[in-house]
Automatic annotation (TrEMBL):
Domain of life of the source: Bacteria
GO MF terms held by the record: coenzyme A diphosphatase activity; metal ion binding
Nudix hydrolase domain: residues covered: 34-183
Keywords per UniProt: Hydrolase, Magnesium, Manganese, Metal-binding
Protein name: Coenzyme A pyrophosphatase
Reported cofactor(s): Mg(2+); Mn(2+)
Native source organism of the sequence: Desulfomarina profundi
Keyword Lipoprotein belongs to the record: no
Keyword Lipoprotein (UniProt): no
InterPro entries associated with the record: CoAse, NUDIX_hydrolase_CS, NUDIX_hydrolase_dom
């Protein structure tokens, strides 16, 4: 079993994630006439240098996920934390969309053999039906932000996802279901991205069957 106290970007981590996803009973959702989209949950090495925007002091051997701050010029979710992703083009699969968007947004070109699996679909308040696709990026020294879509690129340590104070649940005036947040450094990430990160933690890293589709989103994420 991979040591969760020292999560390195190694073959053993890839094998663990693939094994856990094989056992996971994924729950796709019916398309409710919403816009279909996919996001890339990409496992890479952690690098606290250059323009990457690392949030924690950690060695390059640590495993991390790629997140971005969306450009303030975007129509949807401007300035918010996000996983690379976007709308599914005609004829594309969810996995193909995740690979394409990863290349377009952060300059990381991966082949289909880097696809590890998918998590549960998630319906957003802004009208998207999202499929999260887990990818293996491995040792990735350079990422390049597309300024049309991405304000900054961040590598979020997988160790951060396992913090004892994560997740944080808050009551919502708009729903009976709580809003889920994931703490990162001295800040936090909101659902829907936070819910997807939490399920990645539970399923891919810890081998659980945790569901997140019911979690509410803060009002600012509705548009």
């Amino acid at each position: 079993m991979h040591n969760m106290k020292n999560i390195t970007c190694s073959n053993s981590l890839r094998e663990l994630v693939e094994s856990n996803l094989t056992k996971f009973k994924r729950k796709p959702l019916n398309n409710r006439g919403l816009r279909r989209a996919a996001v890339a949950i990409t496992i890479v090495d952690y690098r606290n240098s250059g323009n990457i925007g690392g949030l924690l002091p950690e060695t390059d051997e640590g495993a991390a996920l790629i997140l971005t701050r969306r450009s303030a010029r975007l129509k949807n979710h401007a300035g918010q934390w996000a996983l690379p992703g976007g709308s599914i083009d005609t004829g594309e699969s969810e996995e193909e969309t995740a690979l394409r968007e990863l290349a377009e947004e952060v300059g990381l070109h991966l082949k289909k053999d880097r696809i590890l699996g998918c998590l549960d679909d998630f319906i957003t308040r802004s009208g998207f039906h999202i499929t999260p696709v887990i990818l293996w990026g491995g040792q990735t020294p350079y990422l390049h932000a597309n300024p049309e879509e991405v304000a900054s690129i961040h590598r979020i340590s997988c160790r951060e996802l396992l913090r004892k104070d994560a997740p944080v649940l808050d009551n919502s005036p708009e729903s009976e279901d709580p809003i889920l947040f994931m703490p990162v450094g001295n800040s936090w990430i909101a659902t829907p991205t936070a819910a997807i990160l939490y399920q990645f933690r539970e399923v891919a890293l810890l081998g659980k069957q945790t569901r997140v589709a019911h979690f509410e989103q803060p009002y600012f994420a509705w548009r």
